[in-house]
């Protein structure tokens, strides 16, 4: 273990919120993550109607996913460093409030440029909020509850897939995409109110500078491995998932059934998230390998044959079981890889995660416009399967003994 691998000191007992308040704060952060991810991914279910209304192609409309992803990738470390001396509760509240306002602006936008500006603001909020929220459980609940609390926080990601994106898609189909964005804007403001009411003050533990970011990246080999695997898995997923609606339409699945399939997709994601939450403390590397296998197999299965609604649902369940495990699994990997610098490591992870979302949407858009919708599935599967050899590296095998609190075998 290097000198920088010493686990961070746990906050004194009197600085940790009472159990009930700590868990209420966790739920408030989860609601914030739910609002964020619903905001970021809502265009996936509404690409076709948004493009038609604003007179842009589906590939161009996918910039609504690409732009916030790219901005979040840059914003994560910038916001983390710029707010290093500020109460984390205040920062999180400001960021989630921005999400609410930006979605309301999208709902009333008269042109695609205004929508992209709003998506830019959402990207800032996603990057900053996630980089701070990813490790917030360490500050809100006792150590032995950290893994469970982290799974709950990232359950907000999967619940966004179950309720947010499908419900938004359904609202968009019934009342128009602007109504869907307005509803998510109101959700952001509700999240803001909950955070202000139930979350305790969370003072920063240390002042982080930009110099800390490359230092943490250079020092921790396991962190670099985790970020590489995040890139492959998330880019592969979003290369294909961004275009799941037109892919299903090409298979003859009706628009009404697509909303139902996205709901099934999301339910499987919640299951994957909590299964991973139970596994990551003892079988972290195995969870990573399982993710790679499920993503690759499901994308290949969807690409090779035409599907009915039933067979498509089966494939999507397998796909989402794999991807549902991604956020909590890789966040746990990152926290374990750099236990003495969780915020710096998390900001790097969030940058790569969101850059991967953006690159996946961009690569998928180029492939769909130049080749075919099914090409996005093949490219996504090829990226996902590359996680396996990276997970086979010696340092990755050593991560099996790490725990969420930062103890375990050294690198």
UniProtKB/TrEMBL annotation:
Keywords: Cell membrane, Membrane, Transmembrane, Transmembrane helix. It comes from the Bacteria. Coiled coil: none annotated. It is found in: Cell membrane. PROSITE patterns: MFS. It is a multi-pass membrane protein. The chain crosses the membrane at residues 20-42, 62-83, 90-114, 120-142, 149-168, 180-200, 221-244, 256-280, 287-304, 310-335, 347-368, 374-396. Residues 25-399 form the Major facilitator superfamily (MFS) profile domain. Its main location: membrane. InterPro entries: MFS, MFS_dom, MFS_Efflux_Transporters, MFS_trans_sf. Pfam families: MFS_1. Gene3D superfamilies: MFS general substrate transporter like domains. PANTHER family: CHLORAMPHENICOL EFFLUX PUMP RV0191 (PTHR43124:SF3), PURINE EFFLUX PUMP PBUE (PTHR43124). This is MFS family arabinose efflux permease. It comes from Nonomuraea roseoviolacea subsp. carminata. The lineage of its organism: Bacteria, Bacillati, Actinomycetota, Actinomycetes, Streptosporangiales.
């Amino acid at each position: 273990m290097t000198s920088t691998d010493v686990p961070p000191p746990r906050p004194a007992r009197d600085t940790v919120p009472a159990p009930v308040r700590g868990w209420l704060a966790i739920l408030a952060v989860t609601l914030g993550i739910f609002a964020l991810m619903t905001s970021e991914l809502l265009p996936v279910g509404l690409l076709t109607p948004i493009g038609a209304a604003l007179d842009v192609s589906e590939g161009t409309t996918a910039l609504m996913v690409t732009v916030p992803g790219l901005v979040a990738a840059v914003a994560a470390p910038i916001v983390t460093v710029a707010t290093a001396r500020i109460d984390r509760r205040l920062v999180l509240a400001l960021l989630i409030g921005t999400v609410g306002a930006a979605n309301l602006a999208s709902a009333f936008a008269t042109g695609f440029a205004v929508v992209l500006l709003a998506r830019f603001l959402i990207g800032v909020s996603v990057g900053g909020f996630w980089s701070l929220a990813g490790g917030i459980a360490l500050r809100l609940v006792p150590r032995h509850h950290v893994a469970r609390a982290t799974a709950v926080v990232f359950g907000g990601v999967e619940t966004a897939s179950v309720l947010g994106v499908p419900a938004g898609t359904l609202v968009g189909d019934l009342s128009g995409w602007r109504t869907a964005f307005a509803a998510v804007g109101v959700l952001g403001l509700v999240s803001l109110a909950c955070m202000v009411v139930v979350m305790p003050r969370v003072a920063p533990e240390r002042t982080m500078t930009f110099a800390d970011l490359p230092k943490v990246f250079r020092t921790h080999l396991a962190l670099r491995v985790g970020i590489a695997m995040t890139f492959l898995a998330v880019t592969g997923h979003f290369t294909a998932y961004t275009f799941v609606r037109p892919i299903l339409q090409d298979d003859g699945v009706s628009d009404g059934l697509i909303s139902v399939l996205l709901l099934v997709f999301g339910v499987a994601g919640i299951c994957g998230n909590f299964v991973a939450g139970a596994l990551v403390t003892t079988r972290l590397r195995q969870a990573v390998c399982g993710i790679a296998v499920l993503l690759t197999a499901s994308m290949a299965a969807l690409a090779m044959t035409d599907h009915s609604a039933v067979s498509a649902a089966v494939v999507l369940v397998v796909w989402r079981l794999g991807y549902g495990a991604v956020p909590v699994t890789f966040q746990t990997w990152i926290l374990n890889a750099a236990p003495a610098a969780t915020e710096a490591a998390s900001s790097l992870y969030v940058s790569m995660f969101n850059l991967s979302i953006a690159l996946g949407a961009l690569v998928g858009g180029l492939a769909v416009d130049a080749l075919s919708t099914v090409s996005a599935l093949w490219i996504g599967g090829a990226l996902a399967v590359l996680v396996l050899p990276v997970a086979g590296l010696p340092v990755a095998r050593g991560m099996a003994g790490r725990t969420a609190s930062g103890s375990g075998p050294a690198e």
